[in-house]
């Protein structure tokens, strides 16, 4: 489950500050590299995809879901959550600026489609949880938010 993974592996950063969207994405990927879910090439693959397709992973107002193809360095299913202190522009026409990044790694399309996307959309469909994430300051805050959101699925 998304909440358990993020909390157990400590793949989160709250009230984080970055100068650029690239730095914010790098942090989200570095958290997954640290727990063995991504290879360093995963970050470069995301950047290349943005060069090719634009900020495709800015999926809703204020929300980015950085990810790349499974063969681009995704080693196993994982999630990282980065909540920004100040929103950053990613260059998306309608959904900028972004203040919540949820990075996903999935080693194959089946796990991406059957597990990861469903869990992410469950969280992102919960407006109360999103607003609470924007205010979260501690791991205890994060745990309460994620567990509450998960219980409402």
UniProtKB/TrEMBL annotation:
Transmembrane segments: none annotated. One of its GO terms (cellular component) is cytoplasm. It is found in: Cytoplasm. One of its GO terms (molecular function) is kinase activity. InterPro entries: Ascorbate-PTS_EIIA_comp, PTrfase/Anion_transptr, PTS_EIIA_type-2_dom. PROSITE patterns: PTS_EIIA_TYPE_2, PTS_EIIA_TYPE_2_HIS. Keywords: Cytoplasm, Kinase, Phosphotransferase system, Transferase, Transport. This is Putative PTS system ascorbate-specific EIIA component. It comes from Treponema socranskii subsp. socranskii VPI DR56BR1116 = ATCC 35536.
């Amino acid at each position: 489950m998304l909440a358990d993974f993020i909390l157990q592996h400590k793949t989160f950063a709250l009230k984080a500050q970055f100068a650029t969207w690239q730095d914010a994405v790098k942090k989200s990927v570095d958290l997954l590299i640290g727990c063995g879910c991504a290879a360093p090439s995963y970050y470069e693959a995301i950047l290349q995809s943005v060069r090719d397709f634009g900020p495709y992973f800015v999926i809703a107002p204020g929300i980015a879901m950085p990810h790349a193809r499974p063969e681009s360095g995704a080693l196993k299913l994982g999630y990282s959550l980065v909540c920004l202190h100040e929103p950053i522009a990613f260059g998306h026409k309608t959904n900028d600026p972004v203040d919540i990044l949820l990075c996903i790694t999935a080693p194959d399309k089946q796990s991406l489609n059957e597990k990861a996307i469903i869990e992410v959309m469950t969280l992102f469909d919960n407006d109360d949880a999103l607003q609470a994430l924007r205010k979260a300051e501690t791991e205890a805050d994060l745990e309460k938010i994620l567990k509450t959101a998960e219980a409402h699925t």
